[in-house]
Amino acid sequence: MAETIKPSRKKKTKRSVPYGQMHVQATFNNTIVTFTDRNGGALIQASAGSCGFRGSKKGTAYAAQVAVEKAGEVVKQAHGMSKVDVRIKGIGLGRDAAVRTLSSLDISIESISDVTGVPHGGTRPRKQRRV
Question: pLDDT category, 122, cuts 50, 70, 90?
């Protein structure tokens, strides 16, 4: 019998990222929180749906609070993050709750910026009605 030798995998090391970014995408249906390093490489992600909320409860401020607590604790323990720039996108109920919860986790907020997309030409108008 031929023995198969599995290639040894290198153990993934947890790198120290003391300063990073928190991206909050707050829609009416869900809130997604992603912690990244300075360049935007994702470290940890959590959403209201991944925290066990279903249906219309995913869009609430409390669900966003739980998502930030879950992701914030992990990124603080695993990567030692202590300072973040916050980038908020969307118009959902989780916008303010996410920032408020982050400050209670002893992660200092350096800046808060709104990166919600703004239409700059509008949609194409309807064709002319012929009678």
Answer: confident
How many Cβ atoms sit within 10 Å of the Cβ of residue 23? 20
Burial class of 14 by CB neighbour count within 10 A (0 to 12, 13 to 18, 19+):
exposed
- Listed in sequence order, the residues at least 6 apart from 105 whose beta carbon sits closer than 8 Å to its beta carbon are 68, 69, 72, 73, 76
Rounded to two decimals, the pTM is 0.80
- Judged on CB neighbours under 10 Å (0-12, 13-18, 19+), 46 is buried
Whole-number Å distance between alpha carbons of 29 and 25: 11
Q: Alpha carbon of 52 to those of 33, 41, 69, 71: distances in Å?
A: 15, 25, 14, 14
For the stretch 23-57, pLDDT in tens is 999 999 999 999 999 998 999 999 999 999 999 99
Strand partners for 117: none
61-79 helix and 94-104 helix, angle to the nearest 10 degrees: 40
Residue given tokens 């604790």 in the structure block: 73
Which residue type, as a one-letter code, is found at position 74? V
